[in-house]
């Protein structure tokens, strides 16, 4: 991280917090990036994105004329359990998601399995495989009749929302852990969401993406860890 972007005391505090909380779990680092180069590492893919590296951080940017939020992806070996750890700061946009997909899975839109959506006011955990992105629901939402009340209730059971209050002027730390059929999220060391749902246990997640809504969210000190 660069001191001009992220004050050094905050860097130390978040790194110590992350180390203290996660040192005994998921110790293997599969991928990491401190965005110290002049551009994104070759491992990053981009779709409908103007995301750049600026002053030592990744700046998530959706093009003004895009019909989809910016997507920045990392390919994974087929995995069931993993952690994503990232520092973030809202810098114009107040919304982003960390999403997990299986690009070979055809039972949900674009292979969506599960994800965590973060705003300055809420954190929502989703089982997309059996919920919002499942083909039977995703496609029907576009039809004139839409979803039935029973289907809407079924989808509600595959997500969990908790209110938060995040200072958009400050950096924060997000940790997401997937273990079996449970996904959990922590922000700044505080557990802010837990969801147990069958789709989360999908054994061959092969893609992680950060989806930035609008312009801009800043990201730094990114890690993917495995057990």
Which features characterize this protein?
227 residues; mainly beta; Jelly Rolls; eight-stranded antiparallel β-sheet; seven-stranded antiparallel β-sheet; 46% strand
Short synopsis of the structure:
With 227 residues, the chain is mainly beta. It is 12% helix and 46% strand. The strands form two sheets. Strands 1, 3, 4, 6, 11, 12, 13 and 15 form an eight-stranded antiparallel sheet that branches. A seven-stranded antiparallel sheet has the order 2-5-14-7-8-9-10, with no helix packed on it.
Structure description:
This protein is 12% helix and 46% strand. It has 227 residues and is mostly beta strands. It has a single domain (8-226), classed as Exo-inulinase, domain 1 (Jelly Rolls, Sandwich).
How large a portion of the residues is in β-strands, by DSSP E?
over 45%
Q: Count the E strands.
A: 15
Structural class: mainly beta
Q: At the third CATH level, what is the topology name? A: Jelly Rolls
CATH architecture: Sandwich
Gross morphology: globular
Describe how the helices and strands are arranged.
Layout: H1 8-22, E1 28-33, E2 44-47, E3 52-54, E4 57-61, E5 70-79, E6 82-90, E7 95-101, E8 112-119, E9 122-127, H2 135-138, H3 149-156, E10 159-163, E11 172-179, E12 182-187, E13 190-196, E14 205-212, E15 215-226
Antiparallel strand pairs: 1-15, 2-5, 3-4, 4-15, 5-14, 6-11, 6-15, 7-8, 7-14, 8-9, 9-10, 11-12, 12-13
């Amino acid at each position: 991280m660069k001191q001009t972007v992220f004050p050094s005391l905050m860097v130390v505090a978040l790194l110590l917090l992350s180390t203290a909380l996660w040192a005994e779990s998921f110790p293997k680092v599969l991928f990491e990036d401190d965005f110290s180069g002049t551009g994104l590492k070759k491992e990053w893919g981009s779709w409908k994105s103007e995301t750049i590296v600026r002053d030592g951080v990744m700046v998530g940017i959706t093009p003004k004329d895009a019909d989809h939020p910016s997507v920045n992806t990392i390919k994974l070996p087929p995995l069931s359990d993993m952690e994503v750890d990232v520092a973030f700061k809202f810098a114009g946009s107040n919304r982003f998601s960390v999403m997990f997909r299986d690009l070979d899975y055809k039972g949900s839109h674009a292979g969506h399995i599960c994800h965590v959506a973060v705003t300055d006011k809420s954190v929502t955990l989703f089982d997309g495989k059996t919920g919002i992105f499942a083909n039977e629901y995703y496609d029907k939402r576009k039809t004139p009749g839409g979803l039935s009340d029973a289907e809407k209730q079924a989808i509600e059971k595959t997500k969990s929302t908790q209110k938060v209050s995040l200072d958009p002027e400050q950096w924060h730390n997000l940790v997401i852990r997937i273990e079996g059929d449970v996904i959990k999220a922590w922000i700044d060391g505080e557990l802010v969401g837990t969801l147990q749902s069958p789709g989360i246990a999908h054994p061959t997640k092969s893609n992680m993406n950060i989806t930035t809504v609008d312009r801009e969210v800043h990201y730094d000190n990114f890690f993917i860890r495995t057990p």
